Amino acid sequence: MNPLYSCAEIRAIEEAAAAALPDGVLMQRAGQAGANAALDLLPFSTAKARVLVLAGPGNNGGDALETAAHLAYAGAQVSILHFPPQSISSTERAVALQRAQTSDARFAELDLAEVAGTDWTLVVDGLFGLGLQRPLAGALRELALAVNGLTCSVLALDLPSGLDADTGAIVGPDGVAIHATHTATFIGNKPGLHTCDGRDYAGLVDVARLDIDIGHFAPARLHLNDVKFFSRHLRSRVHNSHKGSYGNVAVIGGARGMSGAPLLAARTALNSGAGRVYALFVEDPLPCDSGQPELMCRLADDFDMRSSTLVIGPGLGASRLASALLARAIASDSALLADADALNLLAAEPALQAALAQRPGGCVLTPHPLEAARLLGATIAEVQSDRVGAARKLAAKLNANVVLKGSGTVIAAPNGDAVINTTGNPALASAGTGDVLSGLCGSLLAQGWPLWEAALAGVWLHGMAADVLVTEGSGPIGLTASELVPAIRVALNRMVQHHGR
Ligand SMILES: NC(=O)C1=CN([C@@H]2O[C@H](COP(=O)(O)OP(=O)(O)OC[C@H]3O[C@@H](n4cnc5c(N)ncnc54)[C@H](O)[C@@H]3O)[C@@H](O)[C@H]2O)[C@@H](O)CC1
Ligand SMILES: Nc1ncnc2c1ncn2[C@@H]1O[C@H](COP(=O)(O)OP(=O)(O)O)[C@@H](O)[C@H]1O
Ligand SMILES: [K+]
């Protein structure tokens, strides 16, 4: 189910597969797959298409030369910008070069004004794939910037040149990458296409397995999120049920001046199916939430934490009282999700971290990159330069199911399993959407979902709600966290209708 492979894993699969095949077959298959993907992007009258193919010095360039030859034979007007290898290249790359040279494709000189000034139908990026070792510099950097200024489709072969296939970060310092609209990736899907800068730079990703025998693929520890991972917990409601059947959620937060955050989380918990929801305040509880009077607003200190699933952190603040509440929540047997200020308190108090790590039932943590960085004693840049690695590290350190938020949210379990989410969009980049996510995950926990599946489903539904709202025109600009709440309710009910038992 949507496995993702590291560079090292892809190289091992490729090596094993190549050993069982005649020389050059994999590059030929990659070139054919690239050409098929390109043809899908060209008009029916291929002869009118002007295609610029960038062929780098390694095997990614070999794939591009094969692709160029196929497109020329299909009748397209193909121009190749060829960057020959500095030393002897692979035999298959030399064969690919010959094939391109004997086709009608034109080998052009690098002329940035021509790149920028031609009305290309498509650019095929075969500069670099898995072998990128340093940032694009000099003429290659200028070429990438010129391509990024074009308005036509850009098809990346294997991955957009300049991007790190494992992490989705642009290889730097001060790096650039080709901004593709489509990526035909070879052998297996790669995490870097789906998180950090990957979602922006890879565009639509299609995997060409190159007919490699399935036996060469070891089981993956990293996947793209999929409804199949959690659908067995989607339950239709039985008639003979009542509010006690669907669990209690207590959202603990709301220090002075920050009452909105727990209300957003609590409203989401209620609207995504929890039977009873409490909004608990560190101090000065609101008498009620007039926008959602079903919520029970209380002082946190008086609350019996054993009775509910606990969502602690939204607007919690950093007071001694807040810290004491977090310690009580950690010590309780209740299902626990810690977010926002609870994560900052944890980062500042190693004793709380130790207590959390020893919780028999585990927990869910939902840090954004800054909160994750504080918990790891790292910088945001370090977290973002390897989001999957950072989420796994935190999950192992705190025995937690970690949701590292952001574009391509990473969910990691203490055992090292990890998933990258595919729903969601920049409409979510506004205050309060994280509170909505914590309330949603808490609600699923209260309804009996296990921690891992609640995190996967919560992140999926949260992103799906934002995707639907954007399709309807309510975003990405100006979408508010409150608007997600009814959209999540619809998404969850639809999902239960389709997949529920
Ligand atoms: N060998 C094969 O049969 C197959 C190869 N494949 C392709 O091969 C690619 C990997 O090939 P390679 O290992 O040759 O790697 P690349 O083609 O990605 O690049 C490696 C070359 O680029 C140079 N280089 C790296 N970074 C540079 C930079 N910033 N500036 C200038 N030069 C730089 C290296 O010195 C080396 O010559 C995959 O991504 C994939 O596209 C796959 O299609 C599967 C089949
Ligand atoms: N550009 C983006 N693309 C996809 N999801 C995003 C983007 N920006 C933010 N999000 C999501 O929005 C939520 C923001 O959470 P957070 O940063 O905690 O906000 P807040 O603390 O204001 O509630 C997370 O679920 C995050 O993954
Ligand atoms: K490429």
Automatic annotation (TrEMBL):
Residues 226-495 form the YjeF C-terminal domain. Keywords: ATP-binding, Isomerase, Lyase, Metal-binding, Multifunctional enzyme, NAD, NADP, Nucleotide-binding, Potassium. GO terms for biological process: metabolite repair; nicotinamide nucleotide metabolic process. Its cofactor is Mg(2+); K(+). It comes from the Bacteria. Transmembrane segments: none annotated. InterPro entries: CARKD, Nnr, YjeF_N_dom. This is Bifunctional NAD(P)H-hydrate repair enzyme. It comes from Duganella violaceipulchra. The lineage of its organism: Bacteria, Pseudomonadati, Pseudomonadota, Betaproteobacteria, Burkholderiales.
